[in-house]
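HUMAN: Forgive my ignorance: could you write out one protein's sequence and backbone structure tokens?

ASSISTANT:
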Amino acid sequence: MTTTLKEKLKKLPLDRQNKIKARSAELIAEEMTRQELRRSLKLTQAQIAQRLQIDQGNVSRIEQRTDLMLSTLRKYIEALGGELQLVARFPDDQVITLAEVFESEEVEEVEAK
């Protein structure tokens, strides 16, 4: 008889189960899309548009684009109430936080496709 993952997890000590759940939540949070992040903060596209002084359609396009200017992403994250940090990780486990990479203060206008 085969055992499911759910059954195996139930057999683990409770503290181990909690650690697994916490790490799972961290991994899921790390992979959130911009739209999921906005929704998790209970904000609408209209609210973000107002904060960025752009129209709601542009917010939608910002959330859907896969290639954004860093300055646009920074402004979007700030409109959500956060701060964007750019971190470079190297094979030798060296981690460097890059500063002064945001030159433009304007949010790019995203053209509809």
Notes: Helices lie at 5-11, 14-30, 34-40, 45-52, 56-64, 70-79.
